User: Which sequence fits this backbone?
């Protein structure tokens, strides 16, 4: 199971495009709210989460995904329980994905230190010891990072490939007539 953490002000495309791609690939995905069930993303778009962070079944967790959007990123950075979940998942060898401004969450936790990563232009200064790459999506071991909303489709396909293999990701890319793969 994959959890996509939704903090108030998250970037909707960066959460929903990967969610859709993963579900098309047969992956169970839980849109997970930090608090209440309905989360307001950027641009006034409201999303009803599948569960609250307090209800998440960590035993089934395969991957944690962090969408960007500065408000959402700040919400996650201010939530000790969310940061602890990301740390526990990473320490347990689970896959971690972060896109746009969200890779700075991984940097704060030391997860990107010494790893290749990408992020939204201008956020590099918050990336600590990451080895920054000029790319839409960067995969380095268990950590997958994406640059921005324009990379959300490629990011979702990379997440799917990491979980279910290249063949599944290629099938989904063909089904959605992807320009990303």
Assistant:
């Amino acid at each position: 199971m994959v959890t996509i953490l939704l903090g108030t002000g998250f970037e909707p495309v960066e959460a929903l495009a990967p969610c859709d791609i993963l579900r098309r690939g047969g992956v169970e995905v839980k849109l997970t709210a930090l608090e209440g069930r309905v989360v307001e993303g950027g641009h006034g778009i409201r999303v009803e989460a599948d569960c609250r962070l307090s209800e998440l079944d960590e035993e089934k967790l395969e991957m944690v995904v962090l969408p960007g959007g500065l408000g959402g990123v700040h919400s996650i950075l201010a939530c000790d329980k969310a940061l602890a979940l990301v740390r526990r998942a990473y320490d347990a060898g689970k896959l971690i994905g972060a896109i746009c401004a969200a890779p700075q969450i991984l940097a704060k936790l030391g997860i990107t230190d010494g790893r290749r990563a990408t992020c939204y232009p201008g956020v590099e200064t918050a990336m600590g010891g990451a080895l920054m790459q000029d790319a839409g999506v960067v995969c380095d071991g268990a950590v997958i990072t994406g640059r921005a909303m324009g990379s959300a489709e490629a990011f979702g396909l990379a997440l799917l490939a990491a979980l279910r293999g290249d063949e599944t990701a290629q099938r989904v890319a063909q089904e959605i007539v992807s320009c990303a793969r």
Q: What stands out?
A: The helical segments are 12-24, 70-77, 80-91, 103-108, 152-164, 166-175.
